[in-house]
Amino acid sequence: MAPALAPKEYPYTVVGVLEIFYEDGGVMKKWVGSGYLVKTAAHPERKDIVLTAAHNLVFLRRPGPLELHFTVYGDRDVYTIAARRDGTLRYAIPEGYDRFPGNPAFDYAVMILQEGAGGANAPLTLATVGETLRTPATIAGGLSAKVQEGDRKVYCSAVTAEKRRDTALYYPEDATAKGMSGGPVLVEERASTWTSIGVVTGTGIVDGELKGIAAPIFEETAESIDALIASSLAG
């Protein structure tokens, strides 16, 4: 099940390709990931809040020069991350990620764009999941190999997303490709009403099989995301 090109319509218009240029040993390198515009009850009017994977943004902690580009699907403009007056960048990673790096339960993060990403883009809402889940879903994001060729389109895969009490959100491993980390796990609640129930984080073992993994959005996760947004906007 190889990812297929997404149609140019909502909700794919709010999924973006994240490129971070950073210095490593005196050499400039590039990391490719994904992210998506979100809205919350506290900030329903904002269109500059991006939810992504925490492991995408750890590169922003590196010393030396760096540059961040975020391209929303179908939008010609390229956005960067906002900075405070003191030069610190407007992003936040859960403390749990630092305590348990690689744990998908904490592998989500928030960043604020330097300017709103196109007034026509309606950000996604977030939906919480319970201890168990089995539902049709769509995974979306950019592909590293394509981005390296200058192709910043968004790709998607239709899957059955599953969760049990003792697992992360998971789906077939071949539904994603490198670069889709940080993209949304989308579900259609009603006709043309889309929401996200998770953030793509990579792959992991479930019952001895390699699966695609996402950080599920629990009530506690949603509260944490709200706190990350508040922290990013403060100052």
From TrEMBL:
Family matches, as Gene3D superfamilies: Trypsin-like serine proteases
SUPFAM superfamilies attached to this UniProt entry: Trypsin-like serine proteases (SSF50494)
Superkingdom as given in the UniProt entry: Bacteria
Protein known as: Serine protease
